[in-house]
Amino acid sequence: MASITVTDTLLSPLGEGVDDAQIRVTAEETTGSVVESSYDIYTTDSAGLYSFEVEYGTYLVEVMIEDTFIPIGSCISDENTPTPVTLTEWLNYSVEVETPTVVPDDPDWAELHSDLRDGDDTESRTSVAQISDDELLVNDTKELIQNEDLAAEMAEHTLTTQNSDAVATNQMTAYSDSVLNESTQHTIALSTRDNSFTHGAELYQASNDSLILSYSAGFESDSVSLLDGFSVEDAVAAHTRHTVIGDAELSESTTVTESSVTAAYTSSAVDTSASLASEVYDDYASQTNKVSTEDAEAYSTMTAEGDVSSIETSADAITVIGSTVSFNDALGNTVLQIDLDSADVTIAGTLSLTDTSEFVGADGYSFYLEYQYSETNSDDDDDWHSTYVDGVDIYRRWREVEIIDGEASYGDWTDGVSSMLKTVPTVILSGLPISTQLMARLLGMIHSLMVTTIVGRP
């Protein structure tokens, strides 16, 4: 059996011969009469010289260091191996060299296709089969396009069927090049005198494995337009729809990534429209609803970010159905609460009646509680005030204020009581029954709060 000779001097890092060093060569596979896992050990002489023959095959080479064999590499012995050869040369000869993979940027697909079609050295072969009679036509065209300098090629097949204004076309294209850029397209087009339909799909995969996929289908006539399409580009997917019939129009769009979703929906007819838009990201979500006519508009925006949520809304009139309706400020504190079962209205603040004549009602009366605060609980009215001072005021007193036939009458102040208040106390307004004018005023106040200052939703 053929063999090679491995010979040289085993040197230390200081360039001195290493004597009595052991080199073990183990067969990694069975070749000829050499059986897998069989081995031999060679020992250098006093000057560090080694010389041994190795049969053709693949071997693991080890050198003993401190009583342990340490692998230094796999070596190949065959007819192409130089002989004699040093141990270092044998190791270098046997190391497989991996060709580095070149990953180019995302290609310009339109440029790749046009360079192939219009290149100076481009060659093409075409096969055409056609039959026709006046306005009747069937054409079948096949084409192979190649360019050795560009190392690219394309195959294309187009089938056309026509009868006067009625035309059907089906085209398919496939492209590839030496660096593994690949693309394919498929288009179908149908048309009659007043209508057309198109259907198209394109798929592109670059040598760096970037991906583009697109699909679309559309119909057009004098009064109807339909479009539906989706696309995928790397890790982004999008879907769109658009429908128009006369003056009515519907549009939808959605985009999805690995960490976000955005969507929009719009419908309209003449001067009336409705829309919905939403966004979802990491720890953030929002949605806006909007409706409008030529003379009116209403919208509502809900947002949640982290541990905070809010609602912004606007409308000429707002109706909430439920037994209890609450409105909160930016910190989540309830500033207005309505119990629809008992007709009680609770306001965490001060209710100011600027014109008592607006509350005249033959069907009843109304009253409210007026509060004052003090640091000393003095009997002197000058020591009391209507605005609570946090950290200063300790005492609180109140009195009833009645409004009867448009005239206000005031009750006596209660004795001051200790109240370590941290917020403005609740004021309760009630009436049995509440006058029609008073309820209208309250609803106006509620509407004003909702469209200007309210954050949060019941």
Supply database-style keywords.
single chain, 458 residues, disordered C terminus, 29 strands, eight-stranded antiparallel beta sheet, mainly beta, flat
Please specify the SSE layout and strand pairing.
Blueprint (H helix, E strand, L loop, with lengths): L2 E7 L12 E6 L11 E5 L5 E7 L1 E9 L2 E10 L9 H8 L14 H10 L4 E11 L2 E12 L4 E12 L2 E12 L4 E10 L4 E10 L5 E10 L3 E10 L2 E10 L2 E9 L4 E9 L2 E10 L2 E9 L4 E9 L2 E7 L9 E5 L5 E6 L4 E4 L18 E9 L20 E10 L2 E4 L6 E2 L8 E4 L5 H17 L6
Antiparallel strand pairs: 1-4, 2-3, 2-5, 5-6, 7-8, 8-9, 9-10, 10-11, 11-12, 12-13, 13-14, 14-15, 15-16, 16-17, 17-18, 18-19, 19-20, 20-21, 22-23, 23-24, 24-29, 25-26, 25-29, 26-27, 26-28
Q: Averaging pLDDT over every residue, what do you get?
A: 83
Strand order of the largest sheet: 7-8-9-10-11-12-13-14-15-16-17-18-19-20-21
Number of helices: 3
Tally of DSSP β-strands: 29
Radius of gyration equals: 44 Å
Largest sheet: 15 strands, antiparallel
CA(first)-CA(last) distance: 92 Å
The level of helicity is under 10%
Indicate the structural class: mainly beta
- The fraction of residues assigned to DSSP E strands is over 45%
Parts with pLDDT < 50 across at least 5 consecutive residues = 359-363, 420-441, 443-458
